[in-house]
Structures are given as structure tokens and as C-alpha cells.
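Deviation from plan, reported transparently: PAZ complex.
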Amino acid sequence: MSDDIFRDAYKPAEYNSNISKAKVYLTTCAINCDSPIVLVTSGGTTVPLECNTVRFIDNFSTGKRGSASTEYFLRRNCYVILLHRSGSLRPFFRHFDANMVDEAFSVDERDDLVVRKDSELGKNFRSIYDAYHKFRNKLLMIEFETCSEYLWYLRGIANLLTSYKSNAIYYMAAAVSDYYIPRDAMSEHKIQSSDAALDIKLFPVPKMLGHLCNTWSPEAFSVTFKLETDSTILISKAERSLQRYKQNLVIGNTLSDRRVRVTFISHSKDNVLKERLCETKGSDKSELEELIVDELLSSYRLWLSSE
Ligand code: PAZ
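Because the crystal trials were delayed, the predicted structure below was used instead.
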């Protein structure tokens, strides 16, 4: 079952061209650099119910964690490949939304459309625009939609990143489905409605984290996120993940307060569990992702120096 998801039937249509783009990106931008190359995963994966997909299962993830973190990694001199859900929040563009249009723009006396300097967007527009232009060549974005597309890209990019050894960082903030429907069990066409209840059998998605940390990219620094809704089980679940997959760090968060606090969970060299709370309260940084990225990069540097 574990390799079924890598059958050609699941391969993303754009796979070859996106992996070629990643190769070019790595060779032209990042090959001779000492800066870390970070793979950020972001947003939720879908699980199609039909081969010709009309309906699918989705989850809550907006892509804020991944897109905001990408900005801070870029600002800290890292290269970033952002593997993100299509339509989820994107770095820099996440600051703009349609509701701002009326407030942010006006027409001046020469009939030109101008950004109103007194609007929220106007106040920040220039610095965001400048940052986007400054960093966009250090950023490569690849989109996924389904869980299998995500896994294909993860494996493909990990294959490329493996030669960057400890210069590569994995920052896995995507909310990846735990269950899916294998191609053979999926309806070819739209499931027809009827008066009877609909039975759908979901199968566990093969766990790829072990492959990533131990085979695909064993020398990289890998950080995974763990989300729970019950805060009382968060640390034990994170610890179990650390024991099982041997990633360097798990960042735990709960659904309700994930915007203001996370907990860094790791093992020390002598295998003692370490927990560090990271929260916006009492910090001069307004976005949690800035705190997370700074804390993570110091752990990374410490790890590099102890290698
Ligand atoms: O995408 P978002 O900003 O709305 O949410 C971020 C998050 C909660 C999906 C992320 O922090 C996370 O915990 N990802 C891993 C989820 C999991 O598989 O447990």
C-alpha cells in the first residue's frame, strides 16, 4: 500500500515541469551559497472522492503559517521552495485582500488610480512591494491540490535537496490528510445521489516522514508541525512523533490559539524531552511566524555547530 500513492495515476500533471523548475532554481540561485535552503510546505491537501473530481474532502488550513514564515525566512537570507496548496495564502500577496479595494484606492485629479496613503494598505504597500521585488528571485513556489500531488512533490524535491545535506531545512507546516481513497476504490465518475446513506471507506495515507528523515534527506534539519484540538495530548503526540521519525524538532500548536502560541518540542542529545513555549504575548514582534523562524534558525545554527 505504501507505494501505491506513487503510481503514475496519482502523478501531478505538472510534475516534470515543476521538478525541472526546481532543478534550475537550485542550480542558478542556490548552488554555491552558504545560506540555508528551506522547503516550506503550506496549506491543506484535498482528498478526491471521484476520479473525475466533483467532490473532495478538505481541511481548515489557510496557508498563513507557511506563507508568513516564508517571508521571514527570505528576510533572514534563506532560499525558499514553497510547496503550497493552490489558492491558499501566498507570501507578500497575503497582505492584500478584496475588501481593501474601496478603502485603499482612489482616483486623483488626472484620473489616475492611486493608492490612498492614509489607508491600512497604503501605509504598508510600498514596503511589501519592495520586499516582494527584493526577494522574489530567492523564492520558488510550487502548487499542489491533492494529498497524492503533495507527496509526489515532497519526494521529488527531497531528491533534489538531499545533496545540500545539512544546508537544507524542511519546515513542514502543511495540513496533510491522514486518510485517502486509493484509485482502485474510487468512483470513476460523479457519485450519483440517492435516498440511501453514502458509505465511503477511507484508507490511511502512507506515512512519508520516516522516509524523508531517514532515507530521502537524512542529513537535513527537519522540522514538522503537530496540530491538536485537545491541548492535553499535544506534547505526548509530539514526543511520539519525535521517537518514531527522529526529526530535529516538532512545533506543536492547537487549533484555537495557533496564531498566538506554539511549543517547540525536541530531544536533547541525552534524549531528554525539551519544551519551549513561543508566543506573541510580551514580544515586540507582531507575527508569531517571525518568532518561530528566529527561534528555529537559532536551533538550526546550534545543531550545525554541534554536527
Ligand atoms: O495554515 P494555517 O496557518 O491556517 O494553519 C497552520 C497549521 C495549523 C496547519 C500548522 O501550524 C500545522 O500545525 N500543520 C501541521 C498539521 C498536522 O498535520 O498536525
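The chain is about 35% helix and 20% strand. We consider this an acceptable substitute for the interim report.
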